[in-house]
Amino acid sequence: MNSYDAIVIGGGIAGLSVASSLAHRLRVLVLEAESSLGYHSTGRSGAVFGRSYGNDVILKLNELSSAFFEAPPSNFTDGTLFRQRPWLIVARADQVEASTRWQKLATRLEVIRAKDIPEQSGGLLRPGYAEFGYLDRNCGDLDVHALNEGYRRLLLACGGQIVLNARVQAIERAGSRWNVETAAGCFSSPLVVNASGGWADSIAGMMGLDPIGIAPLRRSAALVRAPDGVDVARLPVILDADEQFYFKPEAGKLMISSADETPCVPCDVQAEEIDIAHAVDRYERATGQNVRRIDHHWAGMRTFAPDRTPVVGFDPRCEGLLWVAGQGGYGIQIAPALAQLAAGSVFGEPVDARLAAALDPARLIGAGAHSEDSPDRA
Predict the structure, then answer these.
(1) pTM score
(2) What does the pLDDT look like over 265-297, one tens digit per residue?
(3) CATH superfamily of the domain spanning 2-58+144-214+306-370
(4) Contact by Cβ (8 Å): 214, 305
(5) N or C: which terminus of the chain carries fewer CB neighbours within 10 A?
(6) Residue of 196, 149, 141 lying closest to 30 (CA atoms)
């Protein structure tokens, strides 16, 4: 049996970022169930960085991660991780409550008058659609592939290892170590990092623990052609104040989504026709345009804890289990901060105590099995 100091389960952005943060001091192995890294949530991300997007804990993690994106470590990537692109948050006249919530971020956001919203949207939104608008100029696009590849490169440079096609089949405690049986062989370590996304509660179950309520939710998106005369490259990300839709430039076209959150079992999720239809309907209502063809559509999993705040920290019910899960729709943009916090927990280094407490899995122990959002698991 191959032995390591830490086994990280999950080869998405969460697993690779944490593994690379541990590998400069520990012998680290990443186990990925699929034949490629970042296959599920990471590879299907909207690839955006919204500084004002998320609850108070997420906003703090956004700020902690921003420096990494703007100035990554040397040799981390050959290109640029972050390119500035503003976010335009819009609300109709019947969305006063949602508008009020965004107004609380007034120190971060620029208020846009109703008559100026079409211009700020690059001509995409029709006149009269939105009554309230808020602009965050300090947002941007993230190169998810470059980010994931950078963490992989950093991990391997530190001597870490990655095994693909290694779906976990069983985990057993043997003395002070965990024995992890996979389709690719058996591995042993005193520390298991549960960065398995939608499968996080299933992995905990293999370790003899009750679920804490990490629930995978499906989100669908589609690519459509932009209206004639609209410069796609110069468009902001446009987000509905109640998150009923978002539109963003993607590969010279427009990515549209109804921002759906449909409970699902962890799997290779596929877009449902009804979700794409909702996205098209909301796009047409907001823009006054007709969608004649869907060029491509897909879906991804976003995994949330019951309180919609990530779970990072050691499980108090057993030795050697570190959770890095429940990142929701923010996993890419908060990965650097979560990796730093996770590594600090392992190495006993100082971390933000209030932030660590907000992320601590202990807050969910005993409640997860009763979460209404937790789907039945196959």
Answers:
(1) 0.92
(2) 999 999 999 999 999 999 999 999 999 999 999
(3) FAD/NAD(P)-binding domain (3.50.50.60)
(4) yes
(5) C
(6) 196
